[in-house]
Amino acid sequence: MFVIITAGIDLSVGFVLVLAGVVAGEFYLDHGGANASTGVVWAGALISLAVGGGWGLLQGFMVAKLKIPALIATLAGLGGAEGISYLITGGSDVRVVPNKLISSIGQGSIFGIQWLIVISFGVTLIFGLVLAYTRFGRYTYAIGSNPEAAVRAGVNADRHLMKVYALCGLLAGLAGILDPEVQHHPAGHRPRPLPRGPGRRRAGGERADRQDGDREHRHPAGGDHPAEHERPLGVQVRLREQLQLLTARPALIPDRGGDQRGAATDQRGPGWIMQLTMLVMQ
């Protein structure tokens, strides 16, 4: 919200979250894994916050000092965070979360309300009050409304913009620790690498899968007929039947005598239309 109020945008939030979570996960993996102590848990949380805040500060520097448009700078930050995360993990899905973190923040609750909800609500409330009642919030509104006027009023616009983007990255790092999908998966081991890409469907229903090496799996029928689970749905079947009826109807050609009803002839609809339609549906 702070970035948007300054008339900017941050496209990298999702992958900054991933990067912060990956770095923290690798730290947990090297310091006890699922059996990490409370001190290690807090250290990993601080690392996640530092990574997110540092990445946001870097993007703020690009926007404020290098005068790169926020859309371009944060798009580059998105790609950079994604690439670094991939290099760190080697394409593996790291789900190493200490059991103490899972049992406390991930699955714990207070007065029947999960800690994830309490922390999220608390952060939203605190920064909402900061935005409404503090000088930081007023500067944010001023820069978003008229940055030149804010500078003339004595606001260091560049420094404040860097603070705003650093705050956005910091909160993304916090989300990297609180991510519910990560918290509810047991940890303690490295999952096997993800497949390089999804299986590709070829003409005639043939499918090639590149999992567990580069082994290729084909349909036993040689690819001429799709498997049972790949047959068209009932809607597609009915649509094909309707198309066949439409293309098989006699074409209506106006009578030379001016009869508006037209006279049925033996000319059929163009067959290439049916073939092209069937090819597109396949």
What does this 3D model show about the protein?
The structure is a single chain. The chain is mainly alpha-helical and 282 residues long. The protein has two domains: 2-183, no CATH class; 225-251 and 265-282. It has helices at 2-5, 13-30, 38-64, 70-89, 99-106, 115-133, 135-145, 147-152, 157-178, 180-183, 234-248, 271-281, and strands at residues 109-110, 113-114, 200-201, 207-208, 250-253, 263-268. The protein has a two-stranded antiparallel ribbon. The protein has a two-stranded antiparallel sheet with strand order 3-4. Strands 5-6 form a two-stranded antiparallel sheet. A hairpin with a 2-residue loop joins strand 1 and strand 2 (113-114). The longest helix has 27 residues, at 38-64. It is globular. It starts with a helix and ends with a helix.
What's the quick description here?
The protein has 282 residues and is mainly alpha-helical.
List keywords for this structure.
282 residues, mainly alpha, 2 domains, two-stranded antiparallel sheet, 12 helices, 6% strand, globular
Radius of gyration based on Cα positions: 29 Å
Query: For the terminal residues, how far apart are their CA atoms?
Result: 45 Å
Helix content: 55-70%
Instruction: Give start-end ranges of low-pLDDT stretches.
Output: 180-233, 251-269
The number of helices is 12
